[in-house]
Amino acid sequence: MSETPEFPAIITGGGDLSAFISANKPAVDAALDHAGVLLFRGFDVPDPLAFEAAIEAYGEAGFTYEDSLSNAVRTNVTPRVFTANEAPPETEIFLHHEMAQTPLFPAKLLFYCEIAAESGGATPLCRSDWVLDQLRTANPEFVARVKAEGVRYTNVMPGSDDAGSGQGRSWRSTLSVTDQTGAETRLSALGYSWEWLEDESLRVTTAALPAVRELAAGGTSFFNQLIAAFRGWADSRNNPNKAVTFGDGTPITGVDMEPAIRIADELTYDLVWQKGDVALVDNFLVMHGRRPFRGRRRVLASLIA
Ligand code: FE2
């Protein structure tokens, strides 16, 4: 019988976090494999440079925001550290695996709390292997279908960054191109289909992407962007009811999604940040999001390839 791990695992300490990580890398990785999220609390991480040092001490290659196809508007703070999402405080970012709506995604994420919000602003965390286990019982036809066909995501990107939206990154920035011809070349290579819209915005649809992932350590996870896309891809350009389809193009409806959303909500742990906290997240195993908040909040992020 396997024991349910503590989630997240909280490592309390003191002193320099980069020194702790350097000295304990194998144990840190073993704990991460087991728990899916490690929260380092009580260490000295006074500023983004100290966070950057801890990332360097962890010693794994970065996954850069420039190379990614992320939809979020972000700003670099240090070479490996950027703002997590510039969306306004009242916007909830629903559970997702980072960049699972694209063919390019990071294996792990690190978060650092520089300023904790006055109220709200927790990071919901959810074990996606546990979600899939329960979903196999609650909605077996749905699991079988997304596993067999994969899923496609459609979103509309503006011509210039719109920081007022959680999905506001421009197509120029997202695709690292300067003009429409460049955009089309990149999209072809990635297997997307696309349509240019009137106001210089661009609607893109992915190839069918896997929605269930086989994990290196065994087991499977609900590795996709369905919950966030279905619940949250709403702005002046995007309609969440058109955001996700099965691989054959049939829309995925609220009825299809209800069990997954309910199960994920039930399994969610809210990480309430304290200043100086650092969290290390296995992106293949654990979904994350952002609760709405009031006041200033600054949680920075870094991605590992
Ligand atoms: Fe994210």
List keywords for this structure.
alpha+beta; 19 strands; seven-stranded mixed β-sheet; binds fe (ii) ion; 305 residues
Task: Write down the secondary-structure element order.
Answer: EHEHEEEEEEHHEHHEEEEHEHEEEEE
Count of distinct strands: 19
Helix content: 25-40%
The structure class reads alpha+beta
Number of DSSP helices? 8
Name the hetero compounds present. Answer: fe (ii) ion
CA-based gyration radius:
19 Å
pLDDT averaged residue by residue: 93
Largest sheet: 7 strands, mixed
Q: What shape does the CA trace take?
A: globular
**Which stretches of 5+ consecutive residues score pLDDT under 50?**
none
- Ends apart, CA distance between termini: 33 Å
Strand content: 25-35%
Strand line-up in the sheet with most strands: 1-2-16-6-19-4-3
Polypeptide structure, described:
It is a single chain. The protein is of the alpha+beta class and 305 residues long. 29% of the residues lie in helices and 26% in strands. The chain contains eight helices and 19 strands. It has helices spanning 17-35, 48-58, 128-138, 140-149, 171-175, 180-190, 226-232, 254-267; strands at 9-12, 37-41, 76-78, 81-83, 93-96, 108-115, 119-120, 123-127, 151-157, 193-196, 202-205, 213-214, 220-221, 244-246, 269-271, 278-282, 286-290, 293-294, 298-304. Strands 1-2-16-6-19-4-3 form a seven-stranded mixed sheet. A four-stranded antiparallel sheet has the order 5-17-8-15. A four-stranded antiparallel sheet has the order 10-11-9-14. Helix 1 (17-35) packs across helix 2 and helix 3 (128-138) crosses helix 8 (254-267). The longest helix has 19 residues, at 17-35. The radius of gyration is 19 Å and the shape is globular.
